[in-house]
Amino acid sequence: MAKKDGETREDGLGDGGGGSRVYELGFHIDPELPSEEVKKAYAAMRDLVGAKGALVAEGEPVTVQLAYALSRQEESGRRDFTSAHFAWLAYETSAANHADVLAAAKGDARIIRFIDLVTTKDAARHAAELRELSLKAQEKAPERADAELDAALENVAV
Length: 158
Known about the structure:
Strand 2 and strand 3 (77-93) form a beta hairpin. The chain has a four-stranded antiparallel β-sheet with strand order 2-3-1-4. It is α+β, with helices and mostly antiparallel strands. It is 43% helix and 35% strand. It has a domain at 21-121: 2-Layer Sandwich (Alpha-Beta Plaits), CATH 3.30.70.
């Protein structure tokens, strides 16, 4: 059965009939940039998203090892990346404003790669909650690992 313009699909994503949709933009920022420049690149994308729509959820930049090397041709030659600063923004906006956000991400030389997805508000908020839990678990993990290591060393020495 065909859907009429603006009618929402069962999954809540809409059909792109001119209304607003929720998008998630994940992007890798150049790992060789100073931390202040990384923050500026993230803030620029966040400010643009805020100006073009409503921010739903976000993930600030964190340094990650890439699963495979990325190459990018620049004026000075080819650059290979094995790590990057990963950040993401989930936002609600119209199709026209979405195109502006994508154009800005593509035009920013500090962003080495990005992915754009259609999502839902609930999925984006859930991802933000999972990220917070993961960060808290990573903060507590070294404390537990140190305690376990100390106990293991004491058992070995006895």
